[in-house]
Amino acid sequence: MTTIKESSLIETRLDASSTNDVPHLIVIGGTSGIGLALALHHQQLGWQVSVVGHSASKIKYINSQYPNIVTYNCDLKDIAQTQKLLECLSGISFQRLIYSAGSYTNERVHHLNQADSDKMLAINFQAFEQVFRWASEQLKHQENLQNQSLGFTKNHRPSLICIASIAGIMDYPYASLYAKSKRAMIAAASAYRAALAPYDIQVNCIAPGYIDTQALRDLNDGDASHKPFIISTQTAVEHIMQAIDNDIELAVFPRPMRYITGVLNHLPKPLLNWILRSKLDKNK
């Protein structure tokens, strides 16, 4: 059994200017892709921002390019290390948390090995639930102290946001582990939304289609332009912020993908299974 050392969780920079007069955002999985884009967007809106990631090089880049963003290094696959992260963050008052971490293996091309299976389940669902459980308790506690807080709480409703995937919208037997874990995330977010409604804590789940991120390009030999209805990161940020502002429980975009998945979900199950197995799944 590996011992988790205190140094395995590193806050790479302390924010000495941290104050309670501006709203605070925490982004789990915020050192690249849509997570970083959302972090930078909130920063431009005047939010204080903290991001969590596992890549030392990405954290170093953020530290040099965006010195006002507080960065944390954490391996979300490690339950104990994630718990240390949450304990470290427990002393911080925040108004919004976005869970944007994710792991993907193309199961239509590669059969899952044990490492990839463990990683996808841990990051796409297990760590998500661990973080959301902690964050909901933090926000409920802050809600109880709201009368002692400053005016920004009136303008920034406490909120939990998770980035799922349109892959989790459809339910069919041959769905990949990635799709099933994202479907579980969507269901869990819906349960949290119902449970936290009495506390006036907002919960939104975002289920986008293809976003033109570096990670997606890396999975497609440097060019993901062939992906259907692919959108830019900036367009995705606009959709997500609109969904948060309008308090959409489950935001699915872009629109053509939302329509297509809606139609497919209304097909008879045997037909849906045949279509998706023949068009999407790896050969059996």
Could you give a short description of this structure?
The chain is α/β, with parallel strands linked by helices and 284 residues long. It is built from ten helices and eight strands. 35% of the residues are buried.
Overview of this protein structure:
The chain has a single domain (6-279), classed as Rossmann fold (3-Layer(aba) Sandwich). Helix content is 45%, strand content 13%. The chain is built from ten helices and eight strands. Strands 1-4-3-2-5-6-7-8 form an eight-stranded mixed sheet, sandwiched between helices. Helix 1 (33-44) crosses helix 8, helix 3 runs parallel beside helix 4 and helix 4 packs parallel to helix 6. The longest helix is centred in the middle third of the chain and has 31 residues, at 114-144.
Bulk shape:
globular
Q: How widely separated are the two ends?
A: 37 Å
What's the count of strands?
Answer: 8
Mean pLDDT: 84
Number of domains: 1
Largest sheet: 8 strands, mixed
What is the CATH domain class? Alpha Beta
CATH superfamily descriptor: NAD(P)-binding Rossmann-like Domain
Strand order of the largest sheet: 1-4-3-2-5-6-7-8
Number of helices: 10
